[in-house]
Amino acid sequence: DVKVTQSSRYLVKRTGEKVFLECVQDMDHENMFWYRQDPGLGLRLIYFSYDVKMKEKGDIPEGYSVSREKKERFSLILESASTNQTSMYLCASRKTGGANTEAFFGQGTRLTVV
Amino acid sequence: GNSVTQMEGPVTLSEEAFLTINCTYTATGYPSLFWYVQYPGEGLQLLLKATKADDKGSNKGFEATYRKETTSFHLEKGSVQVSDSAVYFCALSGRDQAGTALIFGKGTTLSVSS
Fold first, then answer.
1. CA of A41 to nearest chain B CA: how many angstroms apart?
2. Fewer Cβ neighbours under 10 Å: the N or C end of chain A?
3. Residue A48 and residue B105: Cβ atoms within 8 Å?
4. In B, which residues are within 8 Å of A99 by CB distance?
5. What pLDDT was estimated at residue B99?
6. Mean pLDDT lowest among A1-5, B20-24, B73-77, B101-105
7. Could you give the 3-state DSSP secondary structure of residue B72?
8. pLDDT tens digit sequence for B59-83
9. Exposure b/e, B28-64, CB count within 10 A at least 16 = b
């Protein structure tokens, strides 16, 4: 059974903390993505990576960075957490091979910044 | 740029009612189109997809037809069940670059009562 695993389901962090969200996939996919999900806004792309050590900004990269040192792992970093980063964060992976390939999602991390 | 617009929710139906969730898109070229579903407390999972004009995707009683002339991909089900209560996302994937992320609509919440 294919899997994208996010390290935490729920996190509570304080304003100003550095926060790491981890994502691991076991499908040997080249591409990995971080989205945030907010009511009424749907899914918005934060960053994506198409290869190890490669990264591209998505639509809302401000306040975030990413790391991809190994193919199976993609980390999202909140450099200094703020309350407006309270959200659901979804990681996804996808094989390179054309526009019809499916993206697989983790179960999400609900982050609350207080 | 590429974008997806889906009907606003929430949609509230009684069991066995007919469901339509509208989705239209803007894209250059010939994108692939997807419907994803998110059940409460879970990540997104692929419901169905279509990769070229006039293709019909289907799964679990849901159907959607890729209509290039109207740039639409409406989701339909003839008889909904309580277990179909979820958030539904329409998405597209362009063909223009490696590692392209899926672009999502804002989601439509469906609530089915018995």
1. 5
2. N
3. no
4. 31-32, 51, 93-95, 100
5. 53
6. A1-5
7. strand
8. 999 999 999 999 999 999 999 999 9
9. eeebbbbbbbbeeeebbebbbbbbeeebebeeeebbb
